[in-house]
Structures are given as structure tokens and as C-alpha cells.
Amino acid sequence: FIDEITKPIVIDGNLDEWGKLRFSKKDSVSNTGFNYDIRSDNQFLYIAMDVTDADIQAGSTHTNLNQDGA
Question: The pTM is what?
Fold first, then answer.
């Protein structure tokens, strides 16, 4: 289930080194979902997520817990 990494993971928001993310959860009604994968090395557990959200909420009228972006 959790593959060991074969090359270093760079924590930079770019998921290119992950290749195809193996797992997904989609909601066709709201057109939202995410793809994800999990990897590990001797020290850390890494989780990559690519999120799709058709209803982005951001701005000063929303509290941080209710927004998609700061």
C-alpha cells in the first residue's frame, strides 16, 4: 500500500516527481474531488494531494476554516 520512495521528494508544491497519483475520491454531483498518494522513506511519511474544487471560496468575508485559500 505505501511505496518506499526511489528518489528524494522535494516539498515545493510540484508533484511531478510523484508520477500518477494512485488513489482518488470524486464527487460527480459537486464536481469536486482529489487524487492522492502516499510514500515513505527511513524517516518520513509523504502524502501528495491534487484537489479539484468547483466552488472556490476565498476573501475577507469568510473565516479561515471556511475558505479554500487565504
Answer: 0.69
H/E run at residue 18: none
Q: In degrees to the nearest 10, what's the CA dihedral of 60, 63, 68, 70?
A: 50
What secondary structure does DSSP assign to 23-66, as a single string? Answer: EEEEETTTTEEEEEEEEE-SS-EEEEEEEE-SS---STTS-GGG
What is the spatial distance between Cα 53 and Cα 37, in angstroms, rounded to a whole number?
18
Q: Which three cell numbers stand for residue 9?
A: 521528494
Do residues 18 and 11 make contact, with C-beta atoms less than 8 angstroms apart? no
pLDDT digits (tens, 9 = 90+) for 11-54: 998 999 899 999 999 887 777 899 999 999 989 999 999 988 87
